[in-house]
C-alpha cells in the first residue's frame, strides 16, 4: 500500500501557499520587495535583498574585488565549497541603480 507516503505531500503544501501569499521582504532591512526587483542569493533561498541594501553591501565589501552575498555570509554554491559572488556586470547594474532612480524621479 502507498498510503504511508501520502501525508508527505499535504504537509508540504501549506509552506508553498504561505510563501506565495506572504509579502517578500528584504533579509536586511525587512522592507517589502517588489516582485521582480530584488537580489536573490542563489545559494540560500531565504536571502533576498532590496537594491539599496545590496548597493550598501557592495560598497562596504569593495566593488573592485570579490563581492559576496549581502547577508555578510560567504554562501557556498550548491554542490560546491566555492562561495557565491556577484559578477562584475551585476555589481555595475546594482550600483547604476542609484542614477536610474534619480532620473525617473526628475521626469
UniProtKB/TrEMBL annotation:
GO terms for molecular function: transcription corepressor activity; zinc ion binding. It comes from the Eukaryota. The keyword Protein transport does not apply. GO terms for cellular component: nucleus. GO terms for biological process: regulation of transcription by RNA polymerase II. Keywords: Nucleus. It is found in: Nucleus. Residues 24-95 form the Interferon regulatory factor 2-binding protein 1/2-like C3HC4 zinc finger domain. Belongs to the IRF2BP family. PANTHER family: INTERFERON REGULATORY FACTOR 2-BINDING PROTEIN 2 (PTHR10816:SF18), MYELIN TRANSCRIPTION FACTOR 1-RELATED (PTHR10816). This is Interferon regulatory factor 2-binding protein 2.
Amino acid at each position: 500500500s502507498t498510503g504511508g507516503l501520502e501525508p508527505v505531500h499535504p504537509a508540504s503544501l501549506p509552506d508553498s501557499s504561505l510563501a506565495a501569499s506572504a509579502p517578500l521582504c528584504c533579509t536586511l532591512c525587512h522592507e517589502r520587495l517588489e516582485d521582480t526587483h530584488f537580489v536573490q542569493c542563489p545559494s540560500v533561498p531565504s536571502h533576498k535583498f532590496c537594491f539599496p541594501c545590496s548597493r550598501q553591501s557592495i560598497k562596504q565589501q569593495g566593488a573592485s574585488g570579490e563581492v559576496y552575498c549581502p547577508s555578510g555570509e560567504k554562501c557556498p554554491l550548491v554542490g560546491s565549497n566555492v562561495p557565491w559572488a556577484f559578477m562584475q556586470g551585476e555589481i555595475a547594474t546594482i550600483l547604476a541603480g542609484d542614477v536610474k532612480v534619480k532620473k525617473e524621479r526628475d521626469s
